[in-house]
Amino acid sequence: MANLLDIKIDSLCFPGTGEPVLKNINLPVAAGEFIVLAGPSGAGKSVLLSCLAGVIPLYKKARLHGAIQYRGQSITRLPELAGKIGLVTDNPQNQLFCTTVEEDLAFGPCSMLLPPEDVRRRIKDALDFVFLPGYQPRKPETLSGGEMQRVVLASVLAMNPEILLLDRPADQLDPKGRKEIYQRLHRLSKVQGKTIIVIEETWEDVMPLADRFWGLNQGNLVYDLPNTKTVTISSLREKWGPVKGMPKTGPKAVPVQEYRSDALPALEVRDLYLRYENGGFALHNLTLNICPGEFVALMGENGAGKTTLTKTFNGLLRPQKGSVTVNGLDTQQHTTAQLSLHLGYLFQNPLMQVCCNSVEEEIAFALKVKKYPKDQIAAIVKKTIQEFGLEQAASLHPYRLSRGMLQKAALASVLVANPGILVVDEPTSNMSYEEARDALEIIDRYNKKGTTVIMITHHLKFALEFCRRFLVMKNGGLILDTDTGSLAHHQEIFADLGFALPEISGRGGNKHETALGL
Question: What angle is formed at CA 480 by the lines to CA 479 and CA 482, rounded to 5 degrees?
């Protein structure tokens, strides 16, 4: 039986670059396969999916030596690919451009000239598939990051492609949602014969479902393995070999510093209420204090209000009732620019805060705003670039980076100004495990030097290792505020989020890693 896809890439180079981004890749793909594509940031994973979708070289110019064939035909010569191959990119906002969810989902089927009744049926079925029934009238800009990812997946499913190319399609979903989506995708593969190739950094949910594993590092295919009992996360990571730009060992553990509970709160939230445009509450009856030097995990399912809450900290959102103070400053009486001198914010989507033409300029930007002397700026930027392992990316435009590297550069641009308070919204998204841990070690060092850290995360393993306090939100309210040592008393709340709490041995212990299979 003929292969569905035949991939032969001798080399792929972008204009102006000499080193191939992809090389020596030769892979057959059969119908109905579920394939997991892994590798460190910058390995070429997203580029490979763009090639398979025809985006490269048809729309994004590159020199491709080799051929990619769909059912024996070159994808560059097929009259249309939309009904055959669907691509979900790693930035959901890039694929949402209409005023309602319904219009976004209708765009593809309407472009295929389907009858209106078929379009409506496909929209309903796709939203039901991603667990968003009734979301047709919602505005995309009002959705959480996880909800946006579901909508983008639904928009591709509505076109009913034979091949689904998925670039971290569940990266911003809560654990329960991730498992549900991947289980449904697996059934789609096995029942309907859809071929699925997915890039995934967190493998626990996809490893039992995969038929094959592909691994890339520095553009090379380092493994193509069937799923057997001998395949483990550790064995796959070892096959990557050396990871470019990654330190071999992390920093030494530093004793935990205590924070003063009697000090002026770094953040104080009192009786907070914030309404949606439709009149419903995004936040309600929310009160909390965060002390200087704390490292806090903010958790909850998608749409719980986590990002909405933290955007009230820097004045991006203004509540209808209640108050937020940052280092004693009332956010209602100060501009976002004034608050940014006290609080650094890393957005869930790093593209939202990129404004310069190179990584080096991006890191220097905050120092220029604070009017640091030029010689100090140069020295601080150089040190920060080395600290984050960005030496080879320093002169590149941020848009040239992989999403994992861009996330790291954005974090560097926030931390370079040494903010007293740091809010990070899913700081490890789009990073490999090693890179995520490295980034959190850097944040941890700043925390030990006194920076207050509030981290929105769906990664319990990292939260257990680095955070000393846990806040859990649901439906716009705070349902749990506890320290790490008391988590065992709240198993039910975490089970509802899709987590099984491991045995806790203390911050930085090894029992977390064993319990979570990492």
Answer: 170
Strands (E), 83-202: 85-88, 163-167, 195-199
d(CA 327, CA 313): 11
Q: Where are the alpha helices (DSSP H) in 215-292?
A: 233-240
Classified as helix, coil or strand, 88 is strand
- The CATH architecture one would assign to domain 5-240 is 3-Layer(aba) Sandwich (3.40)
| pLDDT tens track for 296-317 | 999 999 889 999 999 999 999 9
Q: What pTM value is reported for the model? A: 0.76
Q: For the chain, which residues make up each domain, given as ranges?
A: 5-240
Phi-psi region of 63 (alpha: psi -120 to 50; beta: other; left: phi over 0): beta
Per-residue pLDDT at 515 exceeds 50: no
Of the candidates 253, 301, 292, 284, the one whose C-alpha atom is nearest the C-alpha of residue 456 is 301
- Average pLDDT for residues 117-128, to the nearest whole number? 97
Nearest to 363 by CA among 335, 402, 391, 336: 391
